Amino acid sequence: MKVEVISRQRGLLIRRLVLEPGEAMRWHTDLCHRFSVVVRGERLTLEYRDGERVDLDVSPGMADWDAPEARVHRAVNTGSETFEEVVTFHLNAEDEEPQPNAP
Question: Of 6, 50, 77, 94, which has the highest C-beta tally within 10 A?
Answer without folding.
Answer: 77
